[in-house]
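Figure 3 (text version): structure tokens given as input.
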């Protein structure tokens, strides 16, 4: 991070250990806290007040281990000249606080994506910033961090309204709320600066109109707030808010949701956007940043974005990519440079304004009944909304379509990208010893085959609707075979292994019980994600989908196979497709896999270059 110019990193590890001490000082018991903290794979959403208890409880070993780790992290950050950003109090509190302080202004928030509103993890409690108790708790939290870590920073993050709107749009009320949030920080650290995500101004733009934005942004002394223009690579807020109404901000690239693995980016925006913002009239931009939900994908995007922190002028992507290719592989290879030029104008030129979240059908399998045809326009829109968006959230923009079939996100013509893969394969003898070449070859092959699978799936659905059992069998078997082939490909590179993810989770455990819990957390986050019933999948299923060997073979493949088997049965027996019957079978299989303990390889197996070449010949020659 330091070598890439990062000097303001988030340091959020172990905040649960700090909260444990603060809340227990307020006479809240550990039993009460067990239902408050989320599990290890769901900490971020529990911290934001979206859920509570899911994946928990956290053990004392976890608290102690994380606190020790945080102290090491902070020490290293300081050694490298970084300024850590610590968390602060956003108002999220345990339910027990309502009994200890019955007169406190505590509100229970609405449901956030549960299937049936289960109170064990639904509907968190928010202490109103206008309540004096808010400042008391916020001050105690800051001071407890100072006590544990020393005076390591003056910058604190707080996002009280992240995907949760204030109870009123009255600017005076919003201003008072913002002032109270900052007051809680300043009571603990007189030099505190509030670092705030600007995501709310995009995700809930209907609420945050200019009067409300200005009320919040101007609720603290000038220079005491910095806003992250979180989605500036796609939807820059600074352009439509008069430079955040004079508030300093950081131009940020969001880029990735859910840690999904998909080749995607907007290199032209990255190479020019930060410079445009900095030289714009009355600019209040003070830096550039990256705030992706997952980073182990698309290295070309993060390499260019990191460089923009050092550049005062725009970058020409064509020239930059030639230099990047030579640096990445250790030599200049004409075919690979030609391939990168193609990728620049296709995969890395997404200009449709859609926030990319991998909804390719292998990893985000449509949960629907294809028997239903001639849907009304309204029904079609509702159907696509369920497929492409989070419930009641504008996290993803929905594309207009002229079909009632499910739609994946495709922003480029596929055949030029197939040609780019061919060029990569032509160069394989020149770059056979390059691990970075192997990674890019595997990723590009995976991308090409995944997009092919989308079309094969649609062919299968069309055949089903035409009552053509033979064609349906042909296409559905090809789809399943593609999953198997991609799994074999991914197994040949150690960057695409499920076993690595599960092994890292289990290594944190101090006893067998923790090991089972941590593995369940790791498995659940990348599959069902949240709660389900016997016949309803989680509303967030596949949010954090991954193209990992092991996950394709043992999770995505059985899901597709069982679904196709039910469809074929309905064709052969001339009966209606029983969607609920499939859901019941699949959810049972999913929950069993989530609770499983079978081991997966942590070492690559096979020759990635040879497998890629074989698959290219199989599907494109």
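Below: residues designed for each position.
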């Amino acid at each position: 991070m330091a070598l890439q110019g990062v000097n303001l990193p988030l340091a959020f590890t172990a905040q649960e250990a700090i909260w444990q001490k603060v809340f227990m000082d307020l006479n809240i018991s550990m039993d009460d806290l067990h239902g408050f903290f989320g599990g290890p794979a769901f900490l971020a959403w529990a911290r934001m007040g979206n859920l509570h208890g899911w994946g928990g409880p956290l053990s004392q070993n976890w608290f102690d281990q994380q606190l020790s780790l945080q102290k090491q992290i902070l020490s290293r950050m300081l050694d490298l000249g970084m300024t850590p950003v610590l968390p602060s109090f956003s108002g999220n509190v345990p339910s027990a606080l309502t009994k200890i302080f019955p007169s406190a202004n505590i509100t229970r928030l609405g449901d956030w994506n549960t299937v049936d509103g289960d109170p064990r993890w639904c509907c968190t409690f928010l202490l109103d910033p206008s309540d004096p108790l808010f400042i008391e708790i916020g001050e105690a939290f800051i001071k407890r961090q100072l006590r544990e870590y020393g005076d390591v920073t003056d910058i604190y993050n707080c996002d009280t309204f992240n995907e949760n709107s204030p109870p009123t749009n009255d600017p005076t009320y919003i201003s008072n709320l913002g002032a109270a949030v900052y007051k809680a920080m300043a009571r603990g650290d007189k030099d505190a600066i509030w670092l705030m995500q600007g995501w709310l101004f995009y995700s809930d733009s209907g609420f945050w109109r200019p009067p409300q934005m200005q009320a919040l942004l101007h609720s603290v002394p000038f220079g005491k707030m910095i806003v992250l223009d979180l989605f500036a690579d796609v939807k820059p807020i600074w352009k439509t808010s008069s430079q955040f109404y004079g508030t300093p901000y950081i131009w940020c690239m969001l880029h990735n949701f859910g840690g999904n693995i998909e080749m995607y980016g907007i290199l032209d925006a990255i190479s020019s956007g930060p410079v445009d913002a900095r030289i714009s009239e009355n600019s209040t931009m003070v830096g550039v940043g990256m705030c992706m939900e997952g980073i182990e994908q698309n290295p070309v995007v993060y390499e260019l974005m990191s460089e923009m922190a050092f550049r005062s002028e725009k970058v020409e992507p064509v020239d930059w990519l030639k230099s990047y290719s030579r640096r990445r592989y250790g030599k200049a290879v004409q075919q690979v440079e030609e391939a990168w030029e193609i990728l620049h104008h296709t995969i890395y030129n997404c200009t449709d304004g859609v926030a990319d979240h991998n909804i390719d059908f292998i990893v985000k399998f449509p949960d629907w009944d294809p028997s239903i045809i001639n849907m009304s326009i309204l029904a079609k829109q509702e159907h696509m909304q369920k497929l492409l968006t989070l419930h009641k959230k504008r996290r993803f923009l929905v594309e207009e379509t002229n079909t009632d079939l499910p739609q994946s996100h495709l922003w480029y013509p596929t055949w030029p990208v197939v040609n780019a893969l061919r060029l990569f394969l032509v160069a394989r003898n020149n770059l056979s010893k390059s691990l970075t070449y192997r990674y890019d070859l595997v990723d590009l092959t995976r991308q090409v085959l995944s997009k092919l699978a989308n079309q094969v799936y649609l062919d299968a659905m069309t055949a089903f609707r035409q009552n053509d059992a033979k064609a349906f069998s042909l296409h559905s078997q090809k789809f399943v075979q593609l999953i198997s082939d991609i799994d074999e490909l991914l197994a040949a590179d150690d960057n695409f292994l499920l076993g690595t993810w599960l092994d890292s989770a289990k290594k944190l455990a101090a006893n067998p019980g923790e090991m089972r819990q941590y593995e369940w957390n790791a498995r659940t986050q990348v599959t069902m994600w949240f709660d389900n019933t016997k016949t309803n999948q989680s509303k967030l299923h596949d949010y954090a989908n991954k193209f990992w060997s092991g996950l394709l073979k043992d999770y995505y493949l059985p899901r597709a196979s069982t679904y196709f088997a039910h469809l074929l049965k309905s064709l052969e027996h001339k009966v209606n497709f029983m969607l609920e019957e499939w859901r019941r079978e699949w959810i049972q299989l999913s929950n069993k896999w989530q609770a499983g303990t079978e081991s997966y390889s942590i070492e690559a197996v096979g020759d990635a270059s040879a497998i890629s070449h074989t698959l290219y010949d199989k599907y494109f020659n």
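The beta strands are 86-87, 92-93, 106-108, 125-127, 155-157, 193-197, 225-229, 249-253, 285-290.
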